[in-house]
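Duplicate of #3305? Posting structure anyway:
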């Protein structure tokens, strides 16, 4: 191969490589751009905190679903009455509700109503329907990792 062809190939390769690495600008600059308003500053997307975990326990005329639930500390558990009869979710040991203090709806929930409680420490929390104490379940709250 002649020296001129080799040199031409090398130069062509450099030119093509350089053209591939160049970043095209979004808009060409012109002298009229200098007199226009300044470009707006870049706006960062708002940071989002991860959502707190949530769980739902449905109640339908005598049955909690699920009846046993395992969650992490910080989880919000919502009881939803999907039945006809009222339900009053409360912590175990009827009627004192003292095993997981604070976990007590304090009233019966009519059909469609909800009660939520955030479990803030590890515990075994048996629960029952205060209006029908034989209707029971349990929530196991584990430390967050």
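Output from current build:
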């Amino acid at each position: 191969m002649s020296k001129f062809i080799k040199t031409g190939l090398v130069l062509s390769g450099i030119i093509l490589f350089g053209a591939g690495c160049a970043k095209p600008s979004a808009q060409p600059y012109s002298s009229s751009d200098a007199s226009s308003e300044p470009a707006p500053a870049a706006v960062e997307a708002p940071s989002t905190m991860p959502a707190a975990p949530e769980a739902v326990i449905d109640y339908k005329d005598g049955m909690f679903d699920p009846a046993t639930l395992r969650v992490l500390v910080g989880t919000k558990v919502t009881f939803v009455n999907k039945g006809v009869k009222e339900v009053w979710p409360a912590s175990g040991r009827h009627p004192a509700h003292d095993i997981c203090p604070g976990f007590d709806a304090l009233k019966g929930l009519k059909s469609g109503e909800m009660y939520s409680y955030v479990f803030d420490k590890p515990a075994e929390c048996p629960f029952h329907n205060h209006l029908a104490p034989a209707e029971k379940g349990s929530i196991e709250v584990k430390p967050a990792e």
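Confirmed duplicate; merging threads. Residues 54-142 form a domain with the Immunoglobulin-like fold (CATH 2.60.40.420). The chain is about 15% helix and 30% strand.
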